[in-house]
Every structure is written in structure tokens, then in C-alpha cells.
Amino acid sequence: MLRSLLVFFLLAVGNACLAQKDLVEVRGRFSSDSVELGKPISYFFTARYPEKMMVLFPDSSYRFAPFEFQKKILTPTRTQNGISYDSVVYTFTTFEIDSIQSLQLPVFVVNPADCTVVLSERKDVFFKSAVVLPDSVQLQKLPLKTNTNYNPVSWLFNYPFASVIAGAVLVVLLILWLVFGKQIRKHFRIKGLTKAHQQFLQQFNTQIEKSLAGNKVSAETAMVVWKKYLENLSTQPFTKLTTKEIREALANDELALALQRVDRVIYAGGEVVREPFEQLRKFSEDKYHEKLEEIKNG
Asked: What is the pTM of this model?
């Protein structure tokens, strides 16, 4: 029973397609019976079909071999007594040297499920050679003339294909972002955090060495660099806080003692020693590793 239904369906579809083809009349012809190498030739292509049908002509992306597409001129559809008439004039060139070159073009009848192809009759055109060699002249003795002038050829960009490729790339990128977006953001946050930490250490160490060399101003600069870095690691405004406020906010005795000793150098002209600065650097590195783990586990 199932096989009988399938056979009936296929026969019905085939009969419908044949019926559509019978209702569409397609004709094509060249403007001349001969063509020369690289010179344009016109091809007149027409279609008559019932008004209710939708018929599409080949566009520039169609393969017109052995001819190369140059341009087309489309005439608006004319309808009379329920019959529509379309015509288009194609301009081709050929760079093939076959003595007889043929062309058979289709029109596409648009159906709800697919398209039905209706072909025109195959039309031939003779290739006309511009060089005629007399039998009495040998090829090696012919006077040859070299022409290296550029012959411009129209460049056709395949917009439908490019649109499909661009759409596919966007879909792939979207999928990658949905799947790996969190990891990508985490990677760049870690990379930025590490870069900022390296820059801080370089600037902080430079100011420490200058302070130890006797430059008291560098001690104050080192404190500014340290506060800015901690402010970027956390939400607290360290650059606006005094030493007392920082000490109360962090509740770290070793850090508080280090800050007092640095303040003594800045404001009282005390002796510059490395130890309090090392305490500040150790505290900032601890905060850096805490932030790093927070991002990794976030």
C-alpha cells in the first residue's frame, strides 16, 4: 500500500512539472551567426508564461560557458490576456577557439517547494578567426607583432556567495562566544591584571632605588604609585585616604608600621631604609594574588 502511494505521488509531481514546462515557452538566439575572439555578441532571450507563474532568468552568477558574461538589459514584463512576456538581452564575449560554440539557457519556474527548470533550444554560433594563414607560408616565417596593452575586463563580485560566507562566519563567531565567552573574558582580565602588576612593580622599584640613593621626593612618589595600584585592585579610594585611614581600613599591624616609617621619611626627613617599602610591596603582591584567584574562580 505504501509503495503504491509513493509511486502515485511521484507520478503526480512529475506530471505537474511537465505541465508547468508545457505552459512556459522559452526562446533564445544570437544576434549574429559568428563571433570573434574577445568581441561582444548579443543573445536575445525571451519567455512566455501564464501570468500567475513566477519565472526567473539567469543572472551574472550563472555559468554561461563557453561564453563570458559582460552585461544584460532586461525589459519590463508585459502581460496581455493572462499571458506574461519577458525578454532580456545578454552581452557575451568568448575567448575559446572552438569552431562551433553553443549556448542553451534555462528559466526557473518558482514553485512552493523548489524550482522547475525550462530550457531553451541550443543555439550555435561559428567562431571567426581573425588570422588567416596562407598554405604557402610557414608559421616560423610569419611576421609576429607583440601587443602588451592591458585589455580591461569587467570584474564580477559574487554577492550572494559572499553574503553566505559572511553569515556563516558570524554564526560561528556567535557560537564560539556563547560557548567560550566566559573563558575569553577571564583570559583578557587575567592578562590585563598581570600587565598592570608588572608595570606597578617596575615603577615602584624604580622609586625605591631613587629613595635609597638619597632622593626623598621619590619616597613620596613611591607611596602615590602604591596607593593608585591598590585603588585599581579594590573599590577603596586609597589615593584619597591618609595613612591613619588606610591603617584603620586594612587592620594590618605590619602594614601600619611600614606606613608610619615611610611617612617619617617623607614628612620628618628620616633615614630611608628598604624594609618598610618591602612591606608595602609584599602587601600589594598579596592583594594581586587574591584578585587573580578571584578572577580564576569567578
From this structure: 0.43
